[in-house]
Amino acid sequence: MLPYRLLTTDDANPKMKKNQALGFITAGLTLAPARQLDPNLNLCPAHSPGCAQACLFWSGRGSMSRTRNARLQRTAHWRDHPEWFLKSLRADLEALIINATDVGMKPACRLNVTSDIAWEQFRIPDEFPTIQFYDYTKRRDRKVKTDNYHLTFSRSELNHRLVVPTLQLGQNVSVVFRNELPKEYAGYPVIDGDLHDCRWLDPTPTIVGLRAKGPRGQVDTTGFVVSPS
Fold first, then answer.
1. I need a surface site. Which of 1, 2, 10, 177 has the fewest CB within 10 A?
2. Residue 53: predicted pLDDT
3. Can you give the pLDDT at residue 58?
4. pLDDT, tens digit, for every residue of 43-78?
């Protein structure tokens, strides 16, 4: 049976819920990352061993089998019923706009909570100009041209060399730190990215500092999680 809804509300994600204080109702699409569902389906083509281990898919509600199964089911529908999936996603986005309007807030959507799909190729942000879309990405092949879709580049142990060049191009970079956030990293100021998830409001160029979440992130030895000096 196909799920009734694809997007989950910010009540299911404590960090996205913080966006309400800034005037945004936020919904998110959480799928199974990388090849978690199917070895032939990679929803995070630029993932690293470290980010796969520390992925949000495994932390918070993701540690509950019921939640993981729902995410796996959504991913199976993306693979097996793509036309239905996109139709259902559009319906959910329409509902998001209505819900946000009803409470006098603005709609926002994170389409890749635990994936890295190039949604701009499906023109989803173009179809919904009143929604602020945003994502974190490790992909360098993504070219977003719409003003309502904001991408923050995500550092890993494999793409570290791209941090400074990306900042020099005017795109912010998120870095996962162990416990405390430093004031600077790679010569750039670090802001606290855990205060909210409205990444499109961040000053540029900056490092978006994130604290490692869940037990997997705390024991990372790959270099994905950075220990402040």
1. 1
2. 84
3. 61
4. 999 999 888 888 867 655 544 567 788 889 999 999
- Taking only the tens place, the pLDDT of each residue in 197-226 is 999 999 999 999 999 987 666 788 899 999
* CB-side neighbour CA atoms (13 Å) of 118: 11
Tokens of 37: 């569902």
Inter-residue long-range contacts of 119-122, CB under 8 Å, 24+ positions, other chains counted: 119/149, 120/144, 120/145, 120/146, 120/149, 122/86
Phi-psi sector, 123: left (phi>0), alpha (psi -120 to 50), beta:
left
Average pLDDT in the chain: 91
Burial class, 195, CB count within 10 angstroms (exposed 0-12 / middle 13-18 / buried 19+)? exposed
Tokens of 2: 């196909």
Residue type, 116: D
Angle at 56 between CA 71 and CA 225, to 5 degrees: 155
Peptide bond into 189 cis (omega under 30): no
Nearest to 200 by CA among 138, 121, 108, 68: 108
Q: 3-state secondary structure string, 187-227? A: CEEEEECCCCCCHHHCCCCCEEEEECCHHHHHCCCCCCCEC
What's 116's DSSP letter? -
Tell me the pLDDT tens digit for each residue of 4-50: 589 998 777 888 999 999 999 999 999 999 888 899 999 999 999 88
Length of the chain: 229
